[in-house]
Design a protein that fits this description.
Length: 395
């Protein structure tokens, strides 16, 4: 007798929105000669000294489990690295505040699992990488989005609107700065206002700091909540090796949180991934200890690519592409485009060009396109030529 029970997962999973970035990529991955700019991924392989550290670890036979929270050497290396970037006597970062995770997105998911209860209210600043908005929904939380505003100078935060959304019944605020997809970056004054409100209402603050080293000013480091935090703040930071050290495929990240939080986090890691592979963690140590020149070169290279791409896009009729202050994306408005998913699918099919639809990042992203500019200029020029041809079909 056939069971009447559904074979589908629970309702919260059914209601998750599928990634429109993946939908476009899946439409073009099997096609030859597609220029792909849809993912947030540099076009260069991981530097040799980082790969060699992993290879040497494998040759030593380091193929066994490690501590849930990561190798002590890597936790200490991350703590020292962050302490040098964000020296703050009021909230010193030690290895006891650090946990190593299996990718930055895993860090975000673990943090949410530790903080969010079913029915909790979570606030996200959008447009935003869809993973962040959907992760709390997996936990049956209620997510409210506060949108940035787009203008001639780019995307800006309406601080009054955000503060109004941070009510006493808010459990968690999720902020990504520098932001994927817009490049918007919080100022120190904005961070202080946000942190003050979170302190007032006891709101947890989860900062996605994946792009904190991909900023294009003279400082080369984005303003951080760590710079102004107190030791007892409900502040958690997620980060990744993917962007700054060209390690997207390695799936290695970290969390920084109050010591009592980290002490309990080990249990959650155990029931998710158990631990990060040792040989990959060895690569992480090499990346941080020897990677300053990699970051400096990446910043120079991406700044040149950003300026080149945005200038070319702005020269096209009906395209508005203010150069972003951070991250690795041009998130630009295309006049007359009302279905960015259909437009991007057509670019793949007709022009062999892969970019991400703005609608993937929330309703406020409709009418926009995200283009990852972590690429050499020749490849960008080829993409610009294809985009120009595709734009003509919209007119």
């Amino acid at each position: 007798m056939q069971s009447e029970h559904s074979l589908l997962p629970r309702d919260a999973i059914l209601q998750l929105r599928a990634s429109k970035i993946r939908e476009v990529a899946n439409a073009g991955m099997d096609r030859k000669n597609v220029l792909a700019f849809w993912f947030g991924e540099p076009d260069e392989v991981t530097p040799d000294f980082i790969r060699s550290a992993a290879s040497e670890s494998l040759l030593r036979g380091e193929t066994f489990y490690s501590h849930n929270l990561g190798l002590p050497e890597l936790r200490s290396t991350v703590a020292s690295y962050l302490s040098a970037l964000h020296a703050n006597p009021a909230a010193a970062i030690t290895s006891e505040h650090v946990a190593i995770t299996s990718a930055g997105v895993n860090a975000l998911s673990l943090a949410a699992q530790c903080i969010v209860n079913p029915g909790d209210r979570v606030v996200c600043v959008t447009p935003l990488w869809p993973n962040l908005v959907e992760i709390p929904k997996i936990l049956s939380a209620n997510v409210e989005c506060v949108s940035l505003q787009f203008g001639e100078s780019g995307w800006q935060l309406d601080m009054d609107r955000l503060l109004a959304a941070l009510t006493p019944d808010t459990r968690l605020l999720m902020v990504n700065s520098p932001n994927n997809p817009t490049g918007w970056t919080l100022t120190r004054a904005e961070q202080q206002a946000i942190l003050d409100r979170c302190r007032q209402h006891g709101i947890w603050l989860l900062a996605d700091d994946a792009y904190e080293r991909l900023v294009f000013d003279e400082v080369g480091v984005a303003p951080s909540f760590f710079d102004i935090a107190h030791a007892d703040d409900r502040l958690v930071s997620a980060n990744t090796f993917s962007k700054s050290w060209l390690m997207t495929g390695w799936r290695l990240g970290w969390l920084v949180a109050p010591k009592p939080f980290i002490e309990q986090l080990g249990k959650v890691i155990e029931y998710n991934t158990s631990c990060s592979p040792v040989f990959i963690q060895r690569a992480g140590i090499a990346a941080i200890t020897g990677g300053d020149s990699v970051i400096a070169r990446t910043q120079r290279r991406f700044r040149e690519a950003r300026d080149h791409l945005c200038a070319a896009l702005n020269a096209l009729p009906g395209v508005h592409a203010p150069p972003p202050p951070g991250a690795m994306y041009a998130f630009f408005k295309v006049d007359g485009m009302t279905d960015s998913l259909a437009f991007c699918k057509r670019l793949v099919a007709e022009q062999g060009l892969g970019v991400a639809p703005g609608a993937a990042f929330g309703d406020e992203g409709e009418g926009f396109v995200r283009w990852c500019f972590a690429s050499d200029l020749k490849r960008l020029d080829d993409g610009i030529a294809r985009f120009t041809q595709g734009l003509q079909s919209l007119r």
